[in-house]
Model the fold of this input.
Amino acid sequence: DEWLKKRDNSMNNFTLQVKIKQRLNKLDSQDYDNLQCWQIVEAFNKAQLQWVRRQIQGINITKTGDEQTKTRIDDLQILLKETPIDLKESDLYVQSDPLPSDYMAFKRIHGHAKKDCCDNPMRMTITYLAEEENVPLLLSDDLKKPSFEWGETFCTLVSNRLRIYTNNEFLMQDTSIMYYRKPQMIQIDGCVDPYTTQLSTKEVPCEFKDDIAETLIDEAVQILAGDIEAMNEYQIASQSTQENT
Done:
């Protein structure tokens, strides 16, 4: 919260609502006068999730787009988060506790491996999120299986938990996960929260910088225009969203 207060380029919720209503042609008229503030909140928060998923997935052939360009790196860095994870030993792997509640997408794991033969822990490279069905093949492949000597291994995701494969050759310690968290949902003071049905008692503005907020507004307008069957506004917002993807 303190970090958001210090930012000069975060759009406040009043401006956000005015811009959305303006693009739906209801500032000076009574068109769609039944549009409630909770609908704006829900549409904008949905727009944030859709936009972030597209940026992470990417639009290139390999669908790996989160760091495809410097602009995308800059846009998404606010959502990168690193947190320590506790691990429990199992056969062939160590498994984490459930992933954080704000987890959205995997980035990488940082950790060290310990083996009886060596006094100093080995820094491990664990950027490869493998498919669970390929685990037997990876464990039998001399070039891809977990290796203390090379400082490399792989991980999988199962039941909202991480599995880091050790092949029973080493122990993991000082491990943390880097991931993309969910964007912070906006709240409007005095408006019913559509997710909790409770009255919001504080303002939570959009955490993204203004140029991204403008794109999110267009996407929220597209969602609202579709809901109220305003096809002209829908097409305009859709075109603007596509141009700024």
User: Anything to note?
Assistant: The radius of gyration is 23 Å. Helices lie at 2-6, 13-23, 37-57, 70-76, 135-140, 210-227, 231-243.
